[in-house]
Sequence to fold (272 residues):
Amino acid sequence: MAKEIKPPRIRISRRIKKDKVIKVKVKFNHPSFTGLAMADDTSEPVFNRVRPVTFIRNMLVYYGEDLVSRLRIASGIADNPLFVFKLKATKEADIKVVFIDNFGKKWEASKKVKFKG
Amino acid sequence: MKNIEDFTRRKFLNYSMVGGVALPLLSLMNCQNVAHGGVFQTAKDLENMTDLEQMHVPKISLPPVVEDGSQASIVCSVDHPMDEDHYIKSIQIMNFADPVVIKGKFYLTPDNGEAYISTQIRLSGGDGTVWVVTECNQHGKWAAFKNVSVAAGGC
Fold:
């Protein structure tokens, strides 16, 4: 039986000041394979598809209600990737990240931005 | 059928004459789409970059030698303002030596505050060149590359 894929995890700083740019780290344990293998080790690199391709196709980042970033991913991204990007903390609202894989399955996670200091 | 019958020898000669004059003139025009970056622009001299180049050419952080090609960490950033009317629209990571050339394209908005993305990519074994292309909403596409040698391919 295939291992169940858990929702992504978001990490942000605990000390966030208004209008400062913060780093958002998103870890998603999702398998990713191109499904390709070298046809022959001795010849030129010729790849054959030996198993179905599996990868995360889209990552959507919402801040409050607004879609602030979007990542279109191919199977060239590593297994269990960690994405780090930046966001301007303009309001106290949820950061929501939605992942959609190439089979159309969806996972999401959210984290509240709270100002301190 | 009626249209073909109306197409007289005189009309044919007129159209040929207009085409013959217009086509060479079109080739003289600068067709490069500066606003949307029909072609990639790169830094002409990496030692002495102009202000525009410094602002747009992406910075790539990728080790020159990667042991495991299935988990190559890459950081791409651009020192560019993220204002409402002038910002980086996207960052794209590519490697033409791999069977999967485009690794991903990150679309940004001014709400991001900074054009920055860090992730891990798959690279096939041997020597390759990783290209990062950024797109500014006013100044088009800008590219930078980094040569990488991968010990164990990860594709």
In short: The radius of gyration of chain B is 23 Å. The interface with chain A takes residues 70-72, 75, 82, 95, 98-114, 116-122, 124, 126, 153-155 of chain B (CB under 8 Å). The mean pLDDT of chain B is 84.
